[in-house]
């Protein structure tokens, strides 16, 4: 207990009355003089409707309004609280008539707000089981009012009850239990505000109150007013009454008022947030001197002395709860006291444990009531803030942070941090003058928002500044997801402002050939170079490069938001930004500005390989920008029904669990378990920094309202949760530490060819390029996506093969770089569309044969044993490609050998792999089954290798329609590690693996179930030991460091990121803060266990399990006060 002291020295700050006016409720009335008996205006004022003092003329209405009492069964008593009083129940018979009534006067039926108070003393305890009437003007009617006491409860207390009649119905309002000791006088009072709220008082202390809806003024009745007993049910008050008063309006009975104001009720441990505001008001007619204020929380109390307060004067201060207490629920009691008077306010606060660093897993479009179940899906974040919560364009203006706080707290209570999912462009999209115009000065049809307009820039800058100011103190706001959906359908604009913008950037006019965002067919351009090599400053190319690099406005819009964030973030350096979609525009880097992360989804999620392709494209865009942006994987959890089930088609599986949605079947269909699992494996195989799952309602029904997404497959939820529990949660922290493993084979996405030929991998990919890319993956040729601007900036360093499909037109600088690269030994594998300015080292043709020049080998590639999905619209291109040697004579033999080997292959993936080997690619890993996909990433000096089963067939869920192969099929294979000395760890099973030694190197047998994946860590250094250093003793309120070390040969730190599971149990066996999954980088991890001051003394346990080798260790720590 702190000793009292002047409050100014201890509280956080004092608020001015001007500030208080903006945060306080309506000022409470000053206290009437009930403590010393009503005299003068207290008895006869205009507000007094009736006053009975029972003194010299005991039955006279002291207010002067003539409400003379009539007495029957009760008796005046000369020893009241002030002078005389009234003895209400003078007979020991329980129901004896003991009524004192005032006549039925109109003024005794108040027309609006009113108050009543009296002094009461219980003098007999024979009737604790009986109710007791104080005032009754209602009887059995539904008019006027009645004030009574309930029977005594087990604790010796009674509740006051006020019953109000509104003509056609009545409402009861109850107080908190109050103690009325026998022989002691107590002042009782209530007030009704005329709009549904009743407040009770005992002395100067509040006794609670209640609020009822649809209540206004009471309805006047014709009955008299009974004092001390009921008009019909005769349960008189068992004692004496004095100073009975009925008043118009809400009167003051409290000595002082105490308000605790603040939206925050839930904090993460050690979170610094907006403190609670505490307002103290002196309501007494005299100066309040030496009053105290105390805060009690978690067993600790702080006490302070208030400054002297004049009548009606307010004093404001702030209270920041001790968020360093151990996680749990706490009762905060704020008490204001003076002499024997005490007023308290109680509120429940919750402190949540902080979460370890995790891989963010974001689920969107959830309501607060859905949140507890989102954790089951591995969620760490939810989109708790949207346009509605934006302070600039939202619904609540300056009240945004206050109104949004319950949403944020609901997330924290469920262990979820908030992401602001903003679509600010929708606000501008409503305004015609922010639409792009065609060459005729009319809006494009359909219209497209002009993100480059000054309105959009100002909108983003101002929104960011206001939003950041409103939420920066909420430490559970993690980042902002900036939706840029219109970028995928951006079209050039021809307004005066846009023409001037391009003129300023290029000193040129927009070429006449430019009409839309898709580019211009080179065959329609007069005088186009025959070798299809265009100058870098070609007018058409220059315009589109400017437009798609930022001229469309989304770069400036996103940068505007980042600028506003930077200006107002203060200490919130942890808040990130994400832009989505990203790769639905042509392949050029930096087009979305300086955001922290890029994200996008595969346009065809019927093919899991495309989920991996989308992330590869994001990585290329990030690399091309030079900004070091991370990428998020994005896996939708449902299909559009028409994509897998044609209109009118009937399915099995209980008609795909057809559910009524506005009178028809569901619009979207849950992914099959195998497709769902494989899509997630393909995405996680890449070095993503987080995951986004649109449409989580396709797995579990939403509780927060209707949704287009509904579960249609019984076991998709089970499949997803299994991966969340086995992979995303335990391995997530490690997976975010990976970096791309630079491949010797790259795949060029040519921006210039996209502009002049309209083809390539972006926007869902053309069938030809997609077929080759997928075949490379199945042939275990890991392939990096590269952009044109990367080629002259180190993008070809270390590459052996560059795949160039549909690269019809190229800029001169790219051709120059590639020729030099070929002269240095690089090889180009291209199709017949290759720009004539380049010569391919190997050629892909359209026929279904594999042949090699000057050899007699000819063979048609066989179809795979289990067919896979054909690319959308690719039926006419389903044949395999052909390879023809076009290399120089000096290298002819090597190409012949590769082509000869390719002819003996039984599938296109194997043929491509053998050809790439012949062109110089040296595979790091091999697998003898092209249904098993391999993808590697860098983990320090180790390699993280994902192995995923892509073998599928049609099923009877939706596959019978021929649009998707939704059922997984088991696969067997052998993984060749290509080395003689290596250490292999299965991270999905926390086990060290012993490869089999063969002539070709170390091998591992693979047995993969449907849609199954594995994660191997392949390291030159072995994990030999895992140690834990923990102090033997620690004190509550101090910090204990747990140091985890993973070492290799010679006790050296393990040169890789190693996933570990840390289990922490406190003295009571409960899960303690920081329990969870971690990653040990460079051999060491230090956890700072900040012990709370209110920890339970006893022995703590810290247990560590290495999720690579399976090595475990544990230690114990004695915690004391």
From TrEMBL:
Pfam families: Laminin_G_3. Residues 854-877 are annotated as: Disordered. It comes from the Bacteria. InterPro entries: Class_I_gatase-like (IPR029062), ConA-like_dom_sf (IPR013320). Keywords: Signal. Residues 1-26 form the signal peptide. Residues 857-870 have a biased composition (Basic and acidic residues). The keyword Nucleotide-binding does not apply. This is LamG-like jellyroll fold domain-containing protein. It comes from Brevifollis gellanilyticus. The lineage of its organism: Bacteria, Pseudomonadati, Verrucomicrobiota, Verrucomicrobiia, Verrucomicrobiales.
